[in-house]
Inverse folding.
């Protein structure tokens, strides 16, 4: 089937493109790339090959999807998925599913354990199944995937909660803030999309510093972000030890981690180590000592 030309005039787009695969011509090449990557690498240990294959797989989905399908995925499937996951974390769904070795459990049993109406829970379970976040093993029976099991850990689970309660409100009102400010960039942290979305005069870190639960969730999100990734000070990411060695001049180096990371999470208690003498800033102190408070030390760990 030939792909229609979407441009019929300067002002009118042929609506048939909305129900036509986005780039069907790319599919054969992507399939070949996927087959080659999948058969020539040990994807369990080769992170680069796995990420390359994942990118090809996503490109294949994009090429095969119609714009209509993409719209419905964005507006319905993925938003409902996010809400369902966050609610599942709130009520302890994934921890309950993980019990007894993650064995399959009937919906009524889960509902009773969680204290939730079984019909409400069934709707959540069915959507999570449709999105492949959990497995349906029987007519009314469900078991966790590895993803669902990971949601029992705060390093993964808290990312959903901090986005729902802190990050998303400014996003939802971002268009209104831009219109109100003539589509200009924010000039300071207290008159920004964040402050507008939360109806506050505080900056993001001030807002979280006043709310300990959000501090914890943000810290856990940052921990989850770096799981399975080379640390920022790794030579393959940034040659921090090389640069410190070059500029040390007989003095101890002082390094400020990006995004307020805590040194105890990244550099062995705050010391640079190896043949470099120095410390990494640890949210209030140098060298992984006791936190002395402050916004950077609490909200940006």
């Amino acid at each position: 089937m030939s792909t229609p030309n979407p441009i019929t005039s300067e002002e009118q787009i042929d609506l048939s493109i909305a129900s036509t695969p986005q780039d069907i011509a790319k599919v054969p090449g992507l399939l070949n790339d996927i087959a080659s990557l999948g058969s020539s690498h040990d994807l369990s240990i080769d992170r680069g090959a796995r990420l390359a294959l994942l990118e090809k797989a996503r490109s294949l989905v994009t090429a095969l999807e119609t714009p209509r399908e993409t719209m419905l995925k964005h507006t319905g499937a993925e938003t409902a998925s996010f809400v369902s996951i966050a609610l599942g974390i709130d009520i302890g769904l994934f921890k309950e599913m993980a019990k007894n070795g993650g064995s399959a459990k009937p919906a009524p049993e889960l509902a009773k354990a969680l204290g939730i109406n079984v019909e409400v829970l069934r709707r959540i379970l069915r959507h999570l199944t449709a999105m492949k976040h959990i497995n349906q093993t029987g007519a009314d029976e469900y078991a966790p995937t590895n993803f669902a099991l990971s949601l029992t850990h705060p390093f993964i689970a808290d990312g959903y909660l901090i986005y729902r309660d802190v990050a998303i409100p400014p996003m939802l009102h971002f268009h209104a803030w831009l219109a109100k400010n003539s589509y200009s960039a924010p000039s300071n942290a207290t008159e920004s999309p964040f402050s507008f979305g939360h109806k506050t005069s505080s900056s993001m870190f001030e807002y979280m510093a006043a709310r300990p639960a959000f501090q914890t969730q943000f810290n856990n999100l940052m921990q989850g972000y770096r799981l399975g990734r080379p640390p920022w000070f790794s030579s393959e990411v940034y040659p921090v030890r090389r640069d410190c060695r070059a500029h040390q001049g007989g003095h101890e180096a002082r390094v400020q981690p990006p995004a307020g990371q805590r040194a105890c999470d990244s550099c062995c208690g705050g010391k640079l180590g190896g043949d470099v003498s120095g410390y990494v800033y640890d949210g209030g102190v140098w060298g992984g000592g006791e936190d002395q408070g402050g916004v950077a030390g609490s909200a940006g760990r």
Residues 263-271, 284-301 have pLDDT under 50 and may be disordered. The first strand starts at residue 105 and ends at 106. The domain at 70-150 is CATH 1.10.10.10 (Arc Repressor Mutant, subunit A).
